[in-house]
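forwarding from the other thread:

> can someone predict this with iron/sulfur cluster?

sure thing
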Amino acid sequence: MGKDVAYLDCDVEEPNGRIFLKPEITKQIDVTVPVPRVDLDKCTFCGECSAACEYHAIAVLGKTVEVFASLCHGCGGCSDICPEDAIEEIPRTIGHISRGVGMGVEFLEGRLNVGEAISPPVTKALKKLAITSDVAIIDAPPGTSCPVIEAINDTDFVILVTEPTPFGLNDLKLAVGMVREIGLPFGVVINRSDIGDDRTDEYCHRGKIEILKKIPFNRRLAEAYSRGEMMFSVNSQYEKNLRELYQNIVNRISR
Ligand code: SF4
Ligand code: SF4
């Protein structure tokens, strides 16, 4: 549609956008968090760092100070509060960002290292990179926890993708509560819309939530997905539907 597009895969615990866009990666950037290192010669074992840490990532045990690096959010609170200036911050790599181009789309992917517990710093680092494209599409993880909020923060519009099942509806209600709390405009896409029941439709109708698109189940679509092919490659109707979806969102943002 004549736009430069960037795709940011912020589902950093299991990014899969590259399966479909098949990008050529030209750059990799490490994502680090600053974790404390204690100089025991300066430390008086007062325990203030441990008391200040909301994440229980630093503990004073007798005459030593233990840092649990995988729990550390790199907030800097312990080094700020240390009265002896005994804490310095050491960068620790928790993931990386891949950058490249796939199918003419600027491609950026965040990936959390296996075994790491805290993903929002990877998403934050990814979103901080300079994006020059007209449109940036952010692929967020499922759910309503911190990684999702980090991904959708500061966006113009959120698409909530659901399925018409009791489980899907439960998650949708939580997600609607989240985007309303943050104050972001949003709409719903119902995937596999011809299975399940009508309760998702009724919920959206009652809550004056716009259903942007319904995508009925299609075995050929599922097969294409499993081969790593894009939806629009299945038939031209999908391409038309996706163009309408995009234009609808642009119109809503403009309003
Ligand atoms: S706050 Fe500083 S001096 Fe006190 S226990 Fe922690 S590192 Fe040691
Ligand atoms: S940097 Fe923050 S999260 Fe990490 S140990 Fe210090 S206070 Fe805790």
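Residues 38, 43-49, 60, 65, 82, 84, 86-87 surround iron/sulfur cluster (ligand 1) (CB under 6 Å). thats all i got for now
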